[in-house]
């Protein structure tokens, strides 16, 4: 009697690897997951690496060779990230088992699927200097404006993010009183007020002698912006003065040389014109 025996081997599936980047912006950061390029390299140089951004097919359930993989991702300016966290599923169906691993080195075998995630978080913006904006309003000629009614602002252009940062508020408000600001050049602005003239900005850094700064647009002979260095505190003041009211007197003189009898009061006088207030660059009367 003869018997024939055979052994059947079930095929084993190649490992699959998915790379995921997460970006959280709690402090004004502008980057997203598509700014994070992820990659994995097999320890054998003959095996191809995988790379891409979150959601791309190249790094989503990619069939890879078994063995040891090194995961990598870039450092992003003004962001921090934790360790890689991998969820590894071994087997199929009801018998599948799930484990977790941390770190940039991942060992994969047949019948395993891994999803590896790296989370980024933006850093709080560096606040390295302090800036105070002050307006002084003097009313000597019946003016009614107050310092609290004059909006003040300072703006700074960030080359790294291509955006303009602005602090603004009325004199005495918390938004422009010892405001935490980044270092660099700040442009100062305050409005013109009808029937008022105003000075240039006067800025004192760390209590030193004040320096004149242009209001808004550049002005000949003045610094166009305030430059703040790390750790410095600046107080910048602009002064408004109400203008004295204009006065006009009309006088006529009548001379009767040839026996005329008219008097000055016989000739009514009048003046007609347009009032124009020059507040921006005027000087006090």
Could you characterize the architecture of this molecule?
It is a single chain. The chain is mostly beta strands and 285 residues long. 0% of the residues lie in helices and 40% in strands. It is built from no helices and 20 strands. The C terminus is likely disordered.
Write the layout of secondary structure elements.
Blueprint: E1 16-24, E2 38-42, E3 50-52, E4 62-63, E5 67-72, E6 79-81, E7 85-90, E8 97-102, E9 105-108, E10 112-122, E11 129-138, E12 151-158, E13 163-170, E14 179-181, E15 184-189, E16 196-198, E17 201-205, E18 211-213, E19 226-228, E20 233-242
Parallel strand pairs: 1-10, 11-20
Antiparallel strand pairs: 1-4, 2-3, 2-5, 5-9, 6-10, 7-8, 7-10, 11-14, 12-13, 12-15, 15-19, 16-20, 17-18, 17-20
């Amino acid at each position: 009697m003869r018997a024939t025996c055979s052994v059947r081997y079930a095929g084993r599936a190649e490992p699959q690897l998915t790379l995921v980047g997460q970006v959280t912006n709690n402090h004004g950061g502008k980057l997203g997951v598509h700014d994070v390029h992820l990659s994995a390299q097999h320890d054998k140089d003959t095996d191809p690496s995988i790379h891409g951004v979150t959601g791309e097919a190249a790094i989503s359930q990619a069939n890879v060779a078994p063995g040891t993989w090194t995961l990598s991702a870039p450092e992003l300016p003004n962001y921090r990230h934790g360790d890689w966290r991998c969820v590894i599923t071994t087997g199929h169906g009801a018998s599948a088992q799930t484990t977790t691993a941390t770190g940039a080195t991942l060992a994969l075998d047949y019948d395993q699927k891994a999803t590896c995630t790296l989370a980024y978080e933006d850093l709080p913006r560096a606040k390295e200097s302090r800036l105070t904006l002050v307006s002084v309003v003097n009313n000597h000629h019946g003016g009614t404006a107050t310092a609290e009614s004059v909006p003040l602002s300072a703006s700074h252009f960030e080359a790294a993010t291509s955006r303009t940062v602005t602090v603004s508020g009325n004199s005495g408000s918390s938004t422009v009183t010892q405001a935490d600001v980044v270092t660099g050049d700040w442009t100062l602005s305050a409005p013109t007020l009808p029937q008022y003239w105003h000075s240039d900005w006067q800025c004192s850094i760390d209590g030193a002698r004040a320096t004149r700064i242009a209001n808004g647009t550049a002005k000949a002979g003045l610094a166009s912006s305030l430059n703040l260095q790390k750790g410095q505190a600046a107080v910048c003041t602009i002064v408004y003065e109400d203008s004295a009211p204009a006065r006009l007197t009309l006088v006529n003189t009548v001379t009767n040389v040839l026996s005329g009898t008219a008097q000055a009061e016989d000739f009514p006088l009048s003046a007609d014109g347009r009032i124009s207030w020059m507040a921006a660059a005027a000087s006090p009367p």
